Fold these 4 entries.
Entry 1:
Amino acid sequence: MQHLPPDLVPTSYELDEDQNVLRLSWSDGHESIISYEALRRACPCAWCAGEGNFAGTMTPDTPLTAEMTTLYELVMVGRYGLTPIWGDGHKTGIYTYERLRAMCECDACRAEQAASE
Ligand SMILES: [Zn+2]
Ligand SMILES: [Zn+2]
């Protein structure tokens, strides 16, 4: 995974409830778009992603309810990550800035991801 410069941080965010996407503004001027569903599926917490011998509950086929993909707010975690608070009360996933940036679905990032595959 690409390493980010230490001064590259999210500066603000907006929850787009019409399109169910998170818009995240960065200190370098980039605006990231991440769909709620993609964000929830990528939850890195031990319960969702697994840990040790525990496989985790989230797979690409796990059905998601409307509550599970409703984003209430984002909470800053230290200086390295963000925790989304979901409609079903889930709030144990800490998404690092690197992970969030790598998940960006904007046209420029998609083109870059396609080119590096
Ligand atoms: Zn989780
Ligand atoms: Zn992007």
Entry 2:
Amino acid sequence: MAKGNLAAGTADFMLWAERGQEFLASLQMRVNEPSKERQMRDFRMKEVLALTGLKHHAWRSWIAANIPGPAGEVRLTLEQVHQFMSDHDRRPSRPEGAEPIRLGVATLKGGAAKTITCLHLAHAFAIQGYRVLLIDGDPQGTLTNLCGIRSETVAPENTLAAVFDRVDSPDLFDVPALHPQKTHIDGLDFIPATLQMINSDFTIGAAFMNPRNRTVAQRFYTVLDDELKRVEKDYDIILMDTSPSFSYVGLSLMWAAHGLVIPMQPSLPDYRATLDFAQMFGENMGYIEQAARVTREWNPVAVVHTRVDNSPKAEQTTELVRRFSVNTFFEHRLDVHIPHSQAVISSTSQFRSVYEMKGGEVRKVRDSFDALANRVLAAIHDVWGSQVNAAPETVAAP
Ligand SMILES: Nc1ncnc2c1ncn2[C@@H]1O[C@H](COP(=O)(O)OP(=O)(O)O)[C@@H](O)[C@H]1O
Ligand SMILES: [Mg+2]
């Protein structure tokens, strides 16, 4: 049966893509049954009280007043959880006078868990009650698929491409380009990605060659920043997933970010790749600083160990890399880490985060993501605190 010949023409490649997309489409339909629409799971009393820090009596009286029927086994939708928070003055948000914070999840290594980290932070923040905008900045659209949208069905004008494609049609700058869509998770909005976003890089490159658009092209790194300003007032936290590249689009995302989460598996090749990322980031952002005549800081910047193998046989390398990381990044390397977890693999095989899953198996890794989210939130509140206390200036004068 086995033939030696493995020849393939372009038509075969196209066929593989088409055939595989059909498999994925039907899988996605199946996991979204029975309603076809994505739905967030319900929340029990214990989880709601843990989230809000409120006591039984608050729950009992709120349920009696708001939810008809027997109070025994009541479960709330996330929307109701957020209403419960608001009614008790417990829904968190950025303080008055503080700016929405944009966090990019970035590193040079594919498979570092950027997308998984971005998705889980977004879900953790939204469940806690923050208003979150999640942006898929990777043309591969992994995050988009995990959000229940098939990226190949997304029109480029509904993605970040809408922002960057203006670099060669500057007359469009008056019209808002970003249109966040609601998700099945209350408090979480989304901007998806599609493969055609790759063209944005050629568009920007071409604009540099065109004398009419060269000035705009030279300021390509500002266009996303400007567009985000138009929509971000409705949010507390903006999370941006990135592709592992220093493309024009990648650079714009990193420039638009206020803070960075850098996931890293504790292995030597991944440690090396993180150093390469640090160097590339420093160099490239340095060029933009010179062009823009500003000196900036990113805050918070956090290196997070992800996909950590806690088994005894991995201990030696893990320990070595942890030591290197601490002595490289100091306090930027967070103490909390995300373990390698079957629950992550099985929930993402159903295009869901572990926050969307019921049942005990996801509990442990969900606790790890919660710990990470809370550590990042502490750093975010630090930033917000200093914004409220300081005069409103973010960048140094030229
Ligand atoms: N904590 C984890 N445990 C197990 N598998 C994980 C974990 N985090 C990520 N993965 C898996 O690793 C792969 C790469 O993750 P992903 O977030 O897509 O990486 P990146 O965006 O950096 O390329 C995915 O298949 C994902 O399911
Ligand atoms: Mg990714």
Entry 3:
Amino acid sequence: MRAVQITETGGPEVMTVVDLPTPEPGPGQVRIAVAAAGLNFIDTYFRSGVYPGSLPMGLGRECAGTVTAVGDGVAGLSVGDRVVTAGTTASYAEECLAPAVQVFTLPDGLDLDVAAASALQGLTAHYLVRSTFPLAEGHRCLIHAGAGGVGGLLIQMAKMIGAEVFTTVGTAEKAAIARGHGADHVINYRETDFAEAVRAELGDAPGLDVVYDGVGADTFDGSLSVLRPRGMMALFGGSSGQVPPFDLQRLNAGGSLFVTRPSLFHYMDPPEGQQRVDELYGWIVDGELDVPIGGRYPLAEAADAHRALEGRLTTGKILILP
Ligand SMILES: NC(=O)c1ccc[n+]([C@@H]2O[C@H](COP(=O)([O-])OP(=O)(O)OC[C@H]3O[C@@H](n4cnc5c(N)ncnc54)[C@H](OP(=O)(O)O)[C@@H]3O)[C@@H](O)[C@H]2O)c1
């Protein structure tokens, strides 16, 4: 089978398409024929070496497709099932393996492209608004990169819940996309300081209940400065770079603030994972949540997909189609 592999870490040019033996599932694993793999920022961290991995290494954390083999001890999944997972490590391939506990069957009528496009980013947005800081009607939140994958889904979920949404974007085109998702206040941070803009909109209000920040290094300080006393900073990524160590006394000075650095992996244990999947895909099937697909790349052009994501040229979800 054809698969993307890297034998050294580095830029997108280290990604090559190779022929590999079709993998056999071990105990507790299933094999999936990949219909579509989703591109995520984390894939670039593994490719570049920001996150460690052993070489040679496949890429891709999520996909949707059809089960083609099940390993010993797997219950509840069969060959032919239409499934989604955000628990694989090599989905840029014709077939991949995943732990059965992180493979979920899909409701009828859900397109496999849409399922692949919403797994990792959709489940991330879901745990952030449901579990990390459970949003409620009337809460005020700031969501960075509001035209991006996680950001766009976060905005839609926050509006479904009834929160007031501030968001940042880097271009006028992205501002229109974020408004389309339902954001109440859209700030182009290239034209204005986003923290000043949020404070101006807030007027006498005490500050925001929560910031969902996946941009990291460039936005962390400003994000802390717009929280209300005892507000929550949910730092879930570092698209602009990782946040350097900082003085915890700043949390005191900012008003007994909370900071968390959550990861999807810690929010998917049974039975929570299945409940999350059921609610997320229920919203999508019911048409309450739109999953914009911003581009489709064949396996051989996966490196171009990485260049586009890192070059901030993408909106919505990028799929890699083996
Ligand atoms: N912790 C978790 O569980 C978890 C799970 C999934 C994803 N994540 C994280 O969530 C973040 C968003 O992921 P995504 O896949 O949805 O990506 P994305 O938001 O679709 O793309 C990244 C966006 O970040 C903004 N950005 C700001 N500064 C940037 C810079 N220096 N370089 C590149 N982009 C920059 C850009 O939007 P503008 O041009 O509008 O600024 C860009 O389009 C990533 O940091 C990812 O690692 C975390």
Entry 4:
Amino acid sequence: MLSLAHLRALPKIELHCHLEGAMRSETLWEFYSRYGGSRFKTFNEFKAACTVEKGTAPGFIPFLDKFNTLRFCFGNEANVERVAAEAVEDAAADGVTYLELRFSPVSFARRLVQGDGAYAQVSVEQAEVAAEAVVSGARSAAVKRGIRVEFIATCARHFGFETNKPALDLLDRPIGAAFCGLDLAGDESHCAEIFMHAFRDWKLAGKKITIHAGEDPNGPGAANVIEACERLNADRIGHGVRAIEDAGVIAELARSGVTLEMCPTSNLQTRAVANVEHHPIKKLLDARVNVTINTDDPRVCGTTLSEEYALAAERMGLSFDDLKRCALNAARAAFLSEDERNSLCTQIEPAWNCATLIPTIEAKS
Ligand SMILES: [Zn+2]
């Protein structure tokens, strides 16, 4: 298998990365110290509350709680631009050449509300200001680093429809053109039914849909994967780990070509899988499901896309050809036009083909 350095050098595509989980802790601490509050006295305390300790698996709800720590005032739009720019810079440094960065416009709008705005109801105008800041910061960094970034708007199931509505209403604003897709994330015990009309409208407007499903170890599992495909018109599924529990669901994913955005480290930390050897990524690949490898939340999880590829190879049984398949699956499942997706494949494939010629440092198979 290739070394981590070789994996970093290979051009990669990241389809599932939340800006909320990709912000540098050091930068966040700077904002927190200035605007955030007094709960945490030291950087180490703060970092422990908003990141998962290496090698630990806190479970799904404690994992989501990490993001509650990150709900504080950032002070101004320039700071939102900065975290977005840094997330893109970090991805580029790891060899990501095409990034679909997802974020909740509502959550970032709340971070611009002075005082205790962490759970404030925001307006579509406030969501627009926040989204413009994210897009501006991310695009500037992408241009500087010579990579491409696109955006997905995330709604959180557990915040209900009204809270998320400003993010959905963005489609009717000029900033709506910046989004290639819509995402539903969060606690899967909350029903997705209330979002169905809005997601249908986005689909009718030509946007793509990705739904977090089959991730929550205590949620409905494979049934949610089917619900996402059939009732929410998902083009891709975030995680989909628990599809493995139902042979019919696996067959349907393979037949339909719906892509799974798998995030190995995150899946371990949320306990979507009991342990690393039980991750279903290899079985799903072998069942001809379009699997991709992603970070989910690189800073919260303490990982990079290259490290996720390495983990999949070293601990989950993926061969180099499997990794290459995942990389090309990601190019083919990007929320772009067919021509642009073909172009992405053409851009990354030669480097992956050449990589097979690099002497391997180990062969665990
Ligand atoms: Zn996610």
